[in-house]
Design brief:
The structure holds two protein chains of two kinds. Chain A is of the alpha/beta class. Helices cover 41% and strands 25% of the residues of chain A. Chain A has a six-stranded mixed β-sheet with strand order 7-8-9-4-10-11, sandwiched between helices. In chain A, strands 1, 2, 3, 5 and 6 form a five-stranded antiparallel β-sheet that branches. In chain A, strands 13-14-12-15 form a four-stranded antiparallel β-sheet, sandwiched between helices. The termini of chain A are far apart. By secondary structure, chain B is mainly alpha-helical. Chain B has a domain of 170 residues. Helix content of chain B is 80%, strand content 0%. Chain B is built from eleven helices and no strands. Chain B starts with a helix and ends with a helix. Chains A and B meet through helix 2, strand 7, helix 3 and helix 5 of A and helix 1, helix 4 and helix 5 of B.
């Protein structure tokens, strides 16, 4: 199998000290849907900016479709389609005009452009709105149009930064369908995401990024398989933050000492304990904590999810990142009005 | 090269299409020079007494033509800031489009709007009794000189926009620069009526070189010395601006 993307110690340092992307070496196979999962500031966007020639690496390099992103940037741009995280559409033009402009920028001939524009408008369900100004489009329509511009030249690799950030669930499912359809036709896809569900449903392989590094890599099932057994999730009653931290610490100390507990991770509401047998662990944990004089809010049992994988490698749940991300986007969109 | 020309053309078309979708903007753009011509000539009517050259319209029309180039300098920057803000510019530079075409296409768009405004100024000032002493040749030479000036100013503000990526500092800095550029020139009143320090400052202002070359073409005849100076100064200014804008663009990621 050929690799569509190969990176070699790819590194980007901002202002001589911030290591946004730190020594990333990864291979993405042709025909894969590959996901970069990570919290804000993990280096996902910087990574794909380097792969789409938008940012120069500080050191290391990458090849896309066999072309070097530094020495053969033009070739890379010709075979890559880039869909940005922000709206990425021109409010002052119609959907049809915007797609046509990108057709010209990819140096396609007029006939091909006309045909592709109609095909894409059809595929992305924008035919009815094609000649309206983009200013009248909804968020979902804008995102579809935006992805459309990256598809005008039928790229070998589609790079999508947060395909469904801030979109409602119906639109998200539709965009996942488009991505799958494109992938079935042989297009390799690299996407970044905050959403575990997106990774789980869509990606053949996932790389979890944190602080500029890839901390885990594999298929969603492989990653989940790394966490054996069950997860016991404990929530603690609301208390003062100091008090709560002490309670979490004490509970952690008690649980870590047990042989049936493999690992304990603090969470927003309390802590997660990773155990071999959930059904037998729950009563034991309750008993131990009660003995230790601790009150528990709620206790529940679950199979490991990608969230747990994420927590294991980054020490944070991805849920706490989501709210921030959506807020940041809203501020961004509001500014120009 | 063929691609570069086509890229420039489609970039220019994209900008101009805005007017098709917003004919009202076009209208404002074309009415604006008329308002200025009428307002300024009415306001300064009485001071023509101190002038060596006939009416104030006659004096001010070439000044307004240069002034419009100064005042249009922001327009491209704002379109580009909008494109940056909406992630459009980023998307464009991820395509194999020619980088210079994106820059030159934008500069040409400003040149086209300016030429349209100049045509309005010429028509209205003729109606108000002004004339161009050197005829069509003088008008064409005016287009050349002031286009270079306009490209220089537009390019610098656009470079600022691409570097700052936010509208607020660009508005502040552009306002800080454009008004003095206009006042430290003989656009509004002849140089000999200004204090000597302003006359000195004028020597460093490309806007003043443009007006010194253009005004005689409207009033008396070709002043080849002034024209040569203006071509050199404004031409160099335009080149510097294109280099600076290209550098800013490269830093942005282009």
């Amino acid at each position: 199998m050929k690799n569509i993307v190969e990176t070699f110690n790819l590194t980007k340092i901002y202002n001589k000290q911030v290591r946004a992307v730190d020594d990333v070496s990864v291979q993405i196979e042709e025909g894969e849907i590959f996901g970069l999962l990570g919290p804000n500031g993990a280096g996902k966007t910087t990574t794909i900016h380097m792969l789409t020639t938008l940012t120069r690496p500080t050191s290391g390099t990458a090849r896309v479709g066999g072309y070097d992103v530094l020495k053969e940037a033009r070739k890379v741009r010709e075979i890559t389609g880039y869909s940005a995280q922000e709206a990425g559409v021109d409010e002052y033009s119609s959907g049809r005009e915007y797609l046509t402009l990108f057709g010209h920028y990819y140096h396609l001939d007029d006939q091909t452009i006309r045909r592709r524009v109609n095909e894409l408008l059809e595929l992305l369900e924008l035919t009815d709105a094609a000649d309206r100004l983009v200013a009248t489009y909804s968020g979902g329509m804008r995102k579809r149009l935006e992805i459309g511009t990256a598809l005008m030249h039928r790229p070998q690799l589609l790079v999508v930064d947060e395909p469904t950030l801030g979109l409602d669930i119906q639109t998200r499912v539709r965009i996942w369908d488009y991505i799958r359809t494109l992938n079935k036709d042989g297009m390799s896809i690299l996407l970044t995401t905050h959403y575990l569900e997106e990774t789980d449903k869509l990606c053949d392989r996932v790389a979890i990024m944190d602080h500029g590094r890839i901390v885990a890599l594999g298929t969603p099932n492989e990653l989940k398989g790394e966490i054996h057994g069950d997860v016991v999730m404990l929530t603690l009653p609301l208390e003062e933050p100091d008090q709560r931290a002490k309670t979490v610490e004490k509970a952690t100390r008690i649980l870590v000492a047990q042989t049936f507990v493999k690992e304990v991770q603090p969470t927003d509401e309390g802590l997660n304990a990773y155990v071999d047998q959930g059904s037998s662990a729950v009563p034991q944990i309750l008993h131990l904590l009660e003995q230790g004089g601790l009150t528990i809010g709620e206790i529940s049992l679950a199979r490991p999810s990608l969230d747990d994988v994420f927590l294991k490698y980054t020490g944070r749940t991805i849920r706490e990142e989501k709210g921030k991300a959506v807020g940041a986007r809203a501020a961004w969109i509001r500014r120009p009005r | 090269m063929r691609n570069a020309i086509k890229d420039t053309w489609y970039t220019l078309l994209r900008y101009l299409r805005t007017f098709v979708h917003n004919p009202f903007w076009m209208l404002i753009l074309l009415i604006q020079p008329m308002i200025w011509l009428v307002l300024f000539t009415q306001l300064f009517q009485s001071i023509t007494l101190g002038f060596t050259s006939g009416s104030y319209v006659q004096f001010f029309a070439p000044g307004l033509i240069v002034m419009l180039a100064v005042f249009n300098a922001n327009a491209l920057a704002f379109r580009m800031l909008n494109d940056i803000n909406y992630g459009v510019l980023e998307k464009m530079i991820a395509t194999p489009v020619n980088r210079y075409s994106l820059i030159v296409g934008g500069l040409l768009y400003i040149a086209v709007t300016w030429v349209l405004q100049v045509i309005i100024v010429l028509i209205v000032s003729f109606l108000m009794g002004a004339s161009v002493a050197t005829g069509v040749a003088g008008v064409l030479l005016t287009f050349v000189i002031v286009s270079m000036l306009g490209i220089g100013l537009t390019g610098l503000v656009a470079a600022l926009a691409v570097t700052m990526k936010r509208p607020e500092p660009v508005v502040l800095i552009a306002n800080l620069i454009t008004l003095p550029l206009m006042f430290l020139s003989s656009i509004l009143i002849p140089a000999y009526l200004t204090p000597s320090w302003i006359q000195t400052a004028m020597k460093f202002n490309p806007v003043n070189y443009a007006i010194l070359a253009v005004r005689p073409m409207f009033l008396t005849g070709f002043d080849w010395m002034a024209i040569a100076q203006a071509v050199i100064v404004c031409g160099a200014f335009a080149l510097v601006a294109i280099v600076v804008e290209t550098a800013a663009f490269r830093r942005f990621g282009g």
